[in-house]
Amino acid sequence: MSKTPRKSPKLPADLQLGRAVEWPTSPEQAKLDRVPNPQKDTNYVVRFTAPEFTSLCPITGQPDFAHLMIDYVPGQWLVESKSLKLYLASFRNHGAFHEDCTVEIGKRVASAIKPKWLRIGGYWYPRGGIPIDVFWQTGTLPKGVWVPEQGVAPYRGRG
């Protein structure tokens, strides 16, 4: 193993990373940043977990809560995590159904980074006594890539 640290990649100047930025007020306003994948010749899985995702019911305006799990096999690009955090937070005042939020997030991330494969699981807490779980994926999982289960139990208090 080399004692010389890996040289940091040249990052675009317009990244939100490393500077103060305003919280986006809507998903449309939010910016998703990408950074070069230093292991682009290797197939591996990246997982983001957002156990406290919130949005609003588009009919009643009441808050909705979900545990989101995003798994992807990157190609040339990685999702920059601060921008993903800001993007997900932009849904806090956004009215949309569970299905729309989950699929929109998956499509937006996939469009930004063009992964080899991506899946999102939206495990929504019940409203009106019914939990709704939403799943979306795109691309083809490369052969031989290990993808762990998402590990979110079927609703029984989600604890």
From TrEMBL:
Reaction equation(s) it catalyzes: 7-aminomethyl-7-carbaguanine + 2 NADP(+) = 7-cyano-7-carbaguanine + 2 NADPH + 3 H(+)
Catalytic site: 57 (thioimide intermediate), 64 (proton donor)
Annotated Gene3D superfamilies: 3.30.1130.10
GO biological process assignments: tRNA queuosine(34) biosynthetic process
Location in the cell: Cytoplasm
GO CC annotations, alphabetized: cytoplasm
Keywords, alphabetical: Cytoplasm, NADP, Oxidoreductase, Queuosine biosynthesis
Biochemical pathway: tRNA modification; tRNA-queuosine biosynthesis
UniProt keyword Protein biosynthesis present: no
GO molecular function annotation: preQ1 synthase activity
SUPFAM superfamilies: Tetrahydrobiopterin biosynthesis enzymes-like
Residues binding substrate: 79-81, 98-99
Entry keyword Transferase: no
Predominant location: cytoplasm
EC code(s) of this entry: 1.7.1.13
Summary of the function given for this chain in its UniProt record: Catalyzes the NADPH-dependent reduction of 7-cyano-7-deazaguanine (preQ0) to 7-aminomethyl-7-deazaguanine (preQ1).
Protein family: Belongs to the GTP cyclohydrolase I family. QueF type 1 subfamily.
Protein name: NADPH-dependent 7-cyano-7-deazaguanine reductase
Organism: Tardiphaga robiniae
Gene that encodes the chain: queF
